[in-house]
Amino acid sequence: xxxxxxxxxxxxxxxxxxxxxxxxxxxxxxxxxxxxxxxxxxxxxxxxxxxxxxxxxxxxxxxxxxxxxxxxxxxxxxxxxxxxxxxxxxxxxxxxxxxxxxxxxxxxxxxxxxxxxxxxxxxxxxxxxxxxxxxxxxxxxxxxxxxxxxxxxxxxxxxxxxxxxxxxxxxxxxxxxxxxxxxxxxxxxxxxxxxxxxxxxxxxxxxxxxxxxxxxxxxxxxxxxxxxxxxxxxxxxxxxxxxxxxxxxxxxxxxxxxxxxxxxxxxxxxxxxxxxxxxxxxxxxxxxxxxxxxxxxxxxxxxxxxxxxxxxxxxxxxxxxxxxxxxxxxxxxxxxxxxxxxxxxxxxxxxxxxxxxxxxxxxxxxxxxxxxxxxxxxxxxxxxxxxxxxxxxxxxxxxxxxxxxxxxxxxxxxxxxxxxxxxxxxxxxxxxxxxxxxxxxxxxxxxxxxxxxxxxxxxxxxxxxxxxxxxxxxxxxxxxxxxxxxxxxxxxxxxxxxxxxxxxxxxxxxxxxxxxxxxxxxxxxxxxxxxxxxxxxxxxxxxxxxxxxxxxxxxxxxxxxxxxxxxxxxxxxxxxxxxxxxxxxxxxxxxxxxxxxxxxxxxxxxxxxxxxxxxxxxxxxxxxxxxxxxxxxxxxxxxxxxxxxxxxxxxxxxxxxxxxxxxxxxxxxxxxxxxxxxxxxxxxxxxxxxxxxxxxxxxxxxxxxxxxxxxxxxxxxxxxxxxxxxxxxxxxxxxxxxxxxxxxxxxxxxxxxxxxxxxxxxxxxxxxxxxxxxxxxxxxxxxxxxxxxxxxxxxxxxxxxxxxxxxxx
Length: 809
Known about the structure:
Blueprint: H1 26-37, E1 43-47, H2 54-63, E2 71-75, E3 83-86, E4 93-94, H3 104-109, H4 113-120, E5 128-131, H5 139-154, E6 158-163, E7 175-179, H6 185-196, H7 202-212, H8 216-224, H9 228-231, H10 245-250, H11 252-256, H12 260-271, E8 274-275, E9 284-286, H13 294-301, E10 305-308, E11 311-314, H14 317-326, H15 331-334, H16 340-346, H17 350-358, H18 367-380, H19 399-403, H20 415-434, H21 440-451, H22 458-470, H23 474-483, H24 492-509, H25 512-525, H26 533-547, H27 564-580, H28 584-597, H29 605-619, H30 631-637, H31 642-655, H32 658-672, H33 678-694, H34 698-714, H35 718-741, H36 745-755, H37 760-767, H38 771-785, H39 790-799
Parallel strand pairs: 1-6, 1-7, 2-5, 5-6
Antiparallel strand pairs: 2-3, 3-4, 8-9, 10-11
Helix pairs in contact: 1-2, 6-8, 7-8, 12-13, 12-14, 16-18, 18-22, 20-21, 22-23, 22-24, 23-24, 24-25, 24-26, 25-26, 26-27, 26-35, 27-28, 28-29, 29-31, 31-32, 31-33, 32-33, 33-34, 33-35, 34-35, 35-39, 37-38
């Protein structure tokens, strides 16, 4: 979709304005409904700025009382043509001449209001009167409403008033005040998604929330002015250039109270602000260095500013824009971003960045931008930020920026750490360009050197996490992610890098629920990220393990080219998903492609090759086997982590022969237990179960499958249990033909009846034994066949039917 493409505006009509009350106003709705249902009639003032959702919140609460409670809504009460209507009725009464403001006759008319309304509506008496849109209440207007409340009290009627602001000073004790505060980010996000029908990037929601001060109508007005690319995070949006009509109406009375000096000071909050929000870009969180300007305290008294920890904060940014507009200040130019390419990269504004890349590469950019480009392209798996092999020698000037913030300052890393960082960058470039690691031992030492330095950012930490996993050092990768989980992030790219790093570790360890949570966080931040190969591969693994979903192997189109490393990792993840579901034949081809395309994927070459051996042996495609992953391969990785040892032992055991295989499998099972991850342990148990079933040791095979199934169930991975069931059934079928013949005549009769759908009690009647005897004998049959229950029995008979099943009487 083009950057300039705009959606059709969504108007706030009577049909969708009620959505205001559906998100974030539950407490207020209960308060209003409770007041309207109480016996002690009091006046409730619902106070909030224009656009806060006062009308919709009150109407939603009053409608919940049901049609049996008559509710009269009075609108435009201070205008020349006020009117009233009962909820649910079409008839509307003109109250002109009855409700006026400012003279004695009008004030005294409040006394006869209910009699007049009753006469107008044919004697119908309201239980609740809702005075809507009363605006800013002056003392005179409030006194008029109080007289109306007195008459309501006499008639046991409740009065609810929606107002923008109240006069200063003490209020009457019969008045209850309910202030509608700003909507929090999640509620406002859901409202915008419902109103626009479009997923919105999390940081864009945060920025809209800041600019609108949590006001839903103002947030909707801001969102309507954005393109689809801006809403989804594909293009930069710093903030509004002009103030819309809804905001002008909401802040008109506020602006009247701000004099010129205070207005210029307020405008400085958006003109001089410094980035510092949780996502590292605008909106601005605070301004320092304003001194003790006397206007600050007046602005604070009006609720427009607040001080905290030496910084002054603006509470209603659009008021500041109105002040800048009134003073003739060029605020859009003052807020223009310096360094558009850096902002695009930090914000992962990929749609806008694609346009920049089409005009030429970023090779001539400043060192920081070149480092950012490399980190982002490695993160999403595209080649546009990866230097060509002939350009790799020119990376020294930006190597430090790959790992550290402010690398050139006096507090930057030392010479030894910088040398290690330069070697790490060279190793990362080699993996991206050729898929190889030339010196794993040196790489691990450099990772240890850089890991302890301060001032790192998450794009660099993501590369370190990936390289730790490449070496098979899962525990070190997990520790690295945990150690920096609470570090500050600057921009969406770092936040995505943090989530993807945690997802990579979770995928290798088999913690697929965690993988899904991290992927969801990335999708909330950048809704258009599902095309990235790294996320598609991780999603395939988690969907297969949790839901049993068969993965799609299609590679999506994308701007730029996918790197061979990214394509290989995608193939390994999708192949692992097939293997997890028991689809060995599909897994073989994908895992073989992965090992050919990239020698060092993040899943670790030893682990990918072990899965390939597992799939090839299970599918009977021995010709697809790679070099045997054994102790030599482990030493090449330069580490002896439990997961690496477990994967290598599984691969070696699968290829062993005779009595050596039995000893090798016993060793593989031992090595796969904790501290090795659940993924390695379950995969080893499934392979062990297949091996034991093929030897005819059905009891041991069933025990191995049951242990694997229990582990998967405890982890909440129902999809994985389906793959284990399929592996167990297939293993049972391989030896079932011999086991079928070993059943006694009475057992065959029971099996034949069970296969025809007879219940245990029916079988007992047919063979003249107790039902308990049938249960025990069928359980013995299941054990000798290497299956678990009647469902497996039926499946086994379909795949490998006994010859006597049809002829047995």
